[in-house]
Amino acid sequence: MNRTLPLLFLFLLFSTCLLAQETDQPLLFDRDYSEAPLPEVLKNLQSTSQTRFFYQEDWGIDAFLVNAKQGENAIENISELLRNYGFSLIPYKGLLVIVNQEGLQAYRYEQWEEDDAQLNDYQIIGTGKPENSNLPVTLSGQIKDAGENEPLIGASIQVVDSSEGVVTDLDGNYELSLVPGKYKFLVQYAGYEPQSIPVQLINSGELDVELFNETLKLEEVTISARSQEVTVSEKIAGREILDIAVIKSLPTFMGEVDPVKSLISLPGVSSVGEGTSGFNVRGGDPGQNLVMMDGAIVYNSSHLFGFFGAFNSDLIRDVELYKGGGPANYGGRVSSVLNVNLRNGNAQKMDVQGGIGLISSRLLVEGPLKKDKTSFLLSGRTAYPNWMLKRMKDPDLYQSAAGFYDVNFKVNHNIDDNNVLSFSGYLSDDNFEFASDTAYVWKTKLGIVKWDHRFSNKFLMQTQVVASDFQSNINNTQESYDFDYRSGILNYQGKIDFSYELGRSHNLDFGISSLYYEFNNGDFTPGAENSTSEQVVIPRENALESAIYANDEFEISPRLSLVYGLRVSNYLALGGSYFKFDPNQPKTTASITDTLNFNNNEVAKSYMGIEPRASLRWLATPSSSVKLSYYRTNQYIHLISNTAAISPVNYWKSSGYNLSPSIADQYTLGFFKNWKDNLFEISLEGYYKDIQNVVDYKNAANILLNETLDADLIQGVGRAYGAEFLIRKNRGKLTGWVGYTFSRSLRKFDESLFEEEKINGGSFYPANYDKPHDLSVVMNYKLSRRFAMNLNFAYSTGRPITVPVSKFQYEDILSVLNYSDRNQYRVPDYHRLDLSFTLQSGLKKEKFIDGEWVFSIYNVYGRRNPFSVYFTQRGNAFQLSVLGSAFPSISYNFKL
């Protein structure tokens, strides 16, 4: 290598003032190139821009051939070409230097020896001298919150005066590939004080960084903790991540932040109204969503009929939603995947935080069991609305009672640098007693053991074992009609996930999982005073669902990336009794021809699912992208319901001899654009989804305590399609977004030869949750450093209902109603405005209590939004509004 290289580099430094001109615009090719020599391309670029390239002719780069299209990013294309031949493209201000890596290494290494006096200012990574000065080394580490010891997702680490840089993943980890040398890194995260870190990189090593919260937040209100470019650069279509800062900025109901309800403000996500548990994604029903907490399945995602979320906001790190199948490591539902990730306890110091409200309160304690080694986290919540119910005028209400509590705990232990073990648990209990005679109870018990192991910086493993038990009970104490009804689902799950980095932009994930179910489809036990009813026990159902998967994520080129995977699932229905029906008759109790009985753990029915999926992202420009995806998913368990939302009488049922698994194919196409330095972002996505074997019930069917339920269930096809639009402002005093969704969700049941097993004559009809138009407006206005106002407005088309269209009446004795086709009418449209005001404590950096007051008004103008319309036997209509007036609340959140 020519030793004049350092002189060339110094010349460039001194020439900066004459030649350099910084620009935010990328350098693009102004023509097509096919097998063009690199020097020719560089001369053309210099003639049409202010960029200058420096190199020596005897390096032989005229043998490097360029293939490019007009409008492509020239720097990315040339850099990729040079890397293939051991060369680098080094940017400096407005200049660009082509330099052989060996020469650069030698030059930088000589610098270290000349600047020994300054080495005390640098953090040294690696020892001795570079193992091979011709090859890059790896710098990796984790970026965390210095106070909470929590990983920061989407934090950026950038090489100053260079295009080299990355953002952290969901665990706060990053990895950079750099040649040995001296660097200055800038580490940044929204709402935190940036750090400038000088590093002398000799060999591969680790650099962990802790960031502190900014003392004052003068202007910026964080909408997303992830890098704001991530909407454009995200490789997986239909993925949404809300961090806790976003969730807490939304207006609350009764002072409680609900991460699940916050998703409803996003396009493609909706609910059927107040007082409903669950949510709907892209035309799916609530039972088609896979809801998880730290990777463990949760069957009840809310408290008190949906008014409170099941997840304590103080525990949440972020909420991750896939509006489709997601990567291949997820499966089992045909609509969406929601994973609520909880943070670890503070491993450095004790912390106490919580909130006190009119209806509910919460408390969290966390700290180290052994500093920087073992941490714990313990939280609890409880609700006490009874004092408010007692003041209601309606006797049915003031004689009622309600409440809930939940408890979370987590212990995280760092065994060594390569092994982390965690234990966590969740316990919840809901109760609602209506008019002093009927009590509804929901209980969840959840336990998780997780082991993370690092074989190397590029090869990771996570092992997880989960036990989950969900029970739903109804107790009636009415004299002569007392009873106890129970249903639920119990499961045990084990899974092992591996992640291997094949290259700088190439990651492979693979793993295996197995999930054992025990279904309780209903037990009815009459009380001691009930002499008119008999005990009914619906036989238990057991099943085993297993899967293996592989998921590959890589960049085909700087502009084109692909995430594709394959999941192979197997479902075994174990034991139980199944009816055989006469194929020449409609399925009824009268057409049962035989009963098949299977021993415990004997395979009664087996299903196999092949589930491919792929997501393609093309960067049209550095600030815009187009994404295309396809997902196929299988769902082997079904939520049996005759209501539009999850209720106490709903229960889960296994696929088996007469009930097939649902299969969905979803296609999406989206365009994403950021502009004005990521101040604004806009997205437009369209989707189409076909579902096979959706489950519904016959007209006049009985789904509760029905020993021959298979005779009343039918399966057909579903179709959902729509378009989602979002525009968001990320910075400034006013932040927020506007989202609009047009969608349709239709079903058709016409495969049977018998009219009794068809709905609406075999034509497509709207599903219970079909809402063509859905609009949400979310705004956050920072009035001052301490005072902020939040607004949420929601509008949607009224949901479908079935109504009587005529009646036959004989005097005042007999009245027979004649109903319309199913879901042919709609309740009135829904709209609601919520406001909240947040007053933070003083701006002193050191204070004993860091607190905030939150004042909120739910349903500001008192809209009586109809949840449903009911009809008496004589055809009189009554509209049910769960909340028909404005609902103010106040709460105080604190942190010691």
How would you portray this structure in words?
The protein has 896 residues and is mostly beta strands. The protein folds into three domains: 5-107, Phage tail protein beta-alpha-beta fold (3-Layer(bab) Sandwich); 115-211, Immunoglobulin-like (Sandwich); 336-895, TonB-dependent receptor, beta-barrel domain (Maltoporin, Chain A), CATH 2.40.170. 8% of the residues lie in helices and 53% in strands. A hairpin with a 2-residue loop joins strand 24 (351-357) and strand 25 (360-370). The protein is globular, with a radius of gyration of 31 Å. Residues 412-839 form the TonB-dependent receptor-like beta-barrel domain. It is a multi-pass membrane protein.
What topology emerges from the helices and strands here?
Blueprint: H1 5-14, H2 16-19, E1 33-37, H3 38-48, E2 52-54, E3 65-68, H4 74-83, E4 87-92, E5 95-100, H5 101-114, E6 123-125, E7 137-145, E8 156-159, E9 165-167, E10 173-178, E11 181-188, E12 195-201, E13 205-206, E14 209-211, H6 230-233, E15 239-243, H7 244-249, H8 259-263, E16 269-270, E17 280-281, E18 289-293, E19 296-297, E20 302-303, E21 308-309, E22 316-322, E23 336-342, E24 351-357, E25 360-370, E26 374-383, H9 386-389, H10 395-398, E27 401-416, E28 419-434, E29 438-456, E30 459-476, E31 483-503, E32 506-526, E33 536-537, E34 541-555, E35 560-581, E36 592-621, E37 624-635, E38 637-640, E39 651-654, E40 662-675, E41 680-697, E42 713-729, E43 734-748, E44 765-766, E45 773-782, E46 787-796, E47 800-801, E48 804-810, E49 814-819, E50 825-826, E51 830-840, E52 850-858, E53 868-871, E54 877-880, E55 887-895
